[in-house]
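We store amino acids, tokens; thus:
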Amino acid sequence: MKRIILFVATNLAVLVVLSIVLKIFGLDRALAAQGYAYGQLLVYSLVVGFTGALISLLMSKSIAKWTTGAQVIDTPRNEAEAWLVDTVRKLATQVQIAMPEVGIYEGAANAFATGAFKNSAFVAVSTGLLQSMNHEEVEAVLGHEISHVANGDMVTLTLIQGVVNTFVIFLSRIVGSIVDRAVFRTERGTGPGYFITVMVCQIVFGILASMIVAWFSRWREFRADAGSARLLGPQPMIHALQRLGGIEAGGLPQAMNAFGIAGSGGFMALFASHPPIEQRIAALQSAPAGR
């Protein structure tokens, strides 16, 4: 129910903000005078902006299992799998969420959590992570992933992605309409200037929007690290990050990159889904004791 309320509130907030911005700059009257139905564009942008993000969220568990080849542990086959399931259960109980599905996949060191709802999540670790880390370090990584689930990070990231998508679609078409009529002097309908401008604006605004989403992704990594530290103390998470920094971490499919314990930094820091490991360790070391 909380997620539904948050989704509705976010949609309403986007509509209100865009309407206020139009009124402040007088664009609502200017567009109405030109016969531009900006109200319909608002609704269209909202629907299109959120649809893709929501579909990805609802399908996230299936996509994760398919793209990584993760095998769900229904019944542990050995001591290592039994320990993994028991550890996830213990951590889930501590943060008061339902037991997630637990899986293992072949690959270099990494782990992730995903799922549309915190009480039906999926947590998976790679064989490389299990082989390169001791139990304390793996438990810290699991604490990080469980913290993502408990914080509702998958849903929040989806809402932010939907919001920026909405702004990109809406503003691109507003700018396209203005340029088409002011520069290309199109008096009726839409001319080629509109479509060219919309395409260019969607690329430019999309790049700016991805920077916002990446910033939030980095912030939630710090928060998940802190969550693991609250569950297990800071040292296990610090040791796990130090270990991760000394080995070659495994990549995840692009759609899931933000959900891993380690992610690619991108060609610029502003587009990185994860902060540098050194910054994450420093944040844990500087956090007040008992936090």
